[in-house]
Amino acid sequence: MSDISLHDLSSLDATQRASLLQRAEADLSVFVEKVRPIIQAVKDEGDAALIRFARELDKANVVEGGLQVSEAEFDVAFDKVEKDVVESIGFGIDNIRRFHEEQKPETMWLKEIRPGAYAGDRYTPIASVALYVPRGKGAFPSVTMMTSVPAVIAGVPQIAIVTPPTSDGSVDAATLVAARLAGVRTVYKCGGAHAVAAVAYGTETVKPALKIVGPGSPWVVAAKSVLSSVIDTGLPAGPSEAIIFADDSVDGGLAALDLLIEAEHGPDSSAYLVTHSRTVAEAALAALPQHWSRMTDQRVEFSRAVLTGKRGGVVLTASLEDSYRFINDYAPEHLEILSKEPFAHLGHITEAAEILMGPHTPVTLANFVLGPNAVLPTSRWARTYGPLSVADFVKRSSVGYVTSAAYPELAKHARRLARYEGFSSHENSVSEIRDRYLAG
Q1: Residues 181 and 52 in one domain
Q2: How many domains would you assign to the chain?
Q3: Chosen domain end from 322, 353, 372
Q4: Is residue 396 situated within a structural domain?
Q5: What is the C-alpha to C-alpha distance for residues 19 and 330, in angstroms, rounded to an integer?
Q6: Residue where a domain terminates, one of 201, 236, 271
Q7: Which of 45, 340, 383, 387 could cross-link to 249 by cystine, CB 3.0-4.6 Å?
Q8: Of the residues 264, 333, 336, 427, which is catalytic?
Q9: Is 303 buried (19+), middle (13-18) or exposed (0-12) by CB count in 10 A?
Q10: Is residue 103 within 8 Å of 391, Cβ to Cβ?
Q11: Do residues 268 and 221 touch, judged by C-beta distance below 8 A?
Q12: Domain assignment present for 392
């Protein structure tokens, strides 16, 4: 397809190459200004603002059914969803739970640093967390699965899902099935910037939370940015992005098949096939029309917009080393290594949130049922953040305990450093003044 973006990396200057690294949420300034009045309205008006924004922005009427999903709505959801889909949701949740159980830290550990002096960590769950489940370009029970399971495993006592309602004021039935199977019973019918504001400030119906996690549109990302001093906004998770890296051992048609996985999320997604093989690149381009013929019109429209635009297509490199360098510079949310020997490439990749190895591990498996979390940092944040995990739902406290036998040596060294830094109260607290109190 001649209209698919083909980027010959060796022919690009530094500015052109840098433009390939840009994501849809790279400049949030326009969105930030648009979300500010929405946030203020929710803060000032509470439920009334949520009901109004549901009508104006989500085209949904939540007056009759209320802003919170009822137990009856949960029950009806299981009747609405096909039995085999319920089975697959359960299968995915089981695998996600098995994976995340291994991440759960021990409640407390202590190490004897010096004889009689102990130090360690204690982990306790965050008291309240909101889970954002998007709805705009489809229904995503998988996001419910990925966010709910680690929160439940961590033992968060107050967990709530916020998700945009459908036009009749209900919530996607599969999302409710996933929530109940994962162990979450509170779901609020609000999305976008107004949902972020609702869980940040609280309303008559929505309880405020200490943290919000989950992917969202630039509107959601912008709202999180504005409210970051009010609520912990977790890892940066914006529109979907992926790199499919292919060496010359795989068919380009397979690479094209997987290139469409994240590209079909929406026109604000980013998706590149990165290869040093022109044969693979040309085969991928030739295969795309056939793959598109098996997709729905909407998903063809979304993926075509990505692959013909500025944030997608084929990146042809001069060598494997150039491919590795581009991948590390891009720091993708999802990375597939399509190769018959994927582990030969793994050691060269240091900047990717998710790395899926070999032709039998497409992004689809990881998005739904493999087990690792599919809520991942976007927009190059994989350089400092990892996937959502149990660790995102607990906080760590340092613990120290010093015995009377160990105290004198530690006090001597601490006293010297306190004096050097000019902190007299620090110095006094480990001086003979303390010794007199302890002796008494």
Answers
A1: yes
A2: 3
A3: 372
A4: no
A5: 11
A6: 236
A7: 340
A8: 333
A9: buried
A10: yes
A11: no
A12: no
| Residue 80 and residue 147 in one domain | yes
Tokens 């015995």 found at? 403
- Give the other-Cβ count within 10 Å of 121's Cβ: 15
273 and 255 Cβ atoms separated by less than 8 Å: yes
Q: How far apart are CA 360 and CA 354, in angstroms?
A: 15
Shared domain for 213 and 339, answered yes or no, is no
Distance of CA 261 to the CA centre of its chain: 17
Q: Which domain holds residue 424?
A: 404-439
Phi, psi of 165 (to 5 degrees): -80, 160
Residue 334 catalytic? Answer: yes
Question: Contact, 329 vs 21, CB < 8 A?
Answer: yes
pLDDT, one tens digit for every residue, the chain (440 residues): 459 999 999 999 999 999 999 987 667 889 999 999 999 999 999 999 999 999 999 899 999 889 999 999 999 999 999 999 999 999 999 999 999 999 999 999 999 999 999 999 999 999 999 999 998 767 889 999 999 999 999 999 999 999 999 989 999 999 999 999 999 999 999 999 999 999 999 999 999 999 999 998 889 999 999 999 999 999 988 889 999 999 999 999 999 999 999 999 999 999 999 999 999 999 999 999 999 999 999 999 999 999 999 999 999 999 999 999 999 999 999 999 999 999 999 999 999 999 999 999 999 999 999 999 999 999 999 999 999 999 999 999 999 999 999 999 999 999 999 999 999 999 999 999 999 999 98
Candidates 150, 144, 151, 97; CA nearest to 129 is 151
7, 334, 336, 427: the catalytic one is 334
Are residues 164 and 257 part of one domain? Answer: no
Residue 117 lies in a domain: no
52 shares its domain with 13: no
Instruction: For residues 16 and 150, state if they share a domain.
Output: no
Q: 12 and 60, same structural domain?
A: no
Q: Among 344, 393, 333, which residue's Cα sits nearest to residue 366?
A: 333
Separation CA 363–CA 273 (nearest Å): 13
> pTM of this prediction?
0.92
**Are the C-beta atoms of residues 220 and 213 closer than 8 Å to each other?**
no
**Spatial separation of the C-alpha atoms in residues 193 and 100, rounded to whole Å:** 29
Verify that 66 and 193 share a domain, yes or no.
yes
Q: How far, in Å, CA of 222 to CA of 115, rounded?
A: 51
Question: Residue 387 is encoded by which pair of tokens?
Answer: 């996937």
**Pairing, β 117-125 against β 394-402:** antiparallel
In 137-191, alpha helices (H): 141-154, 173-182
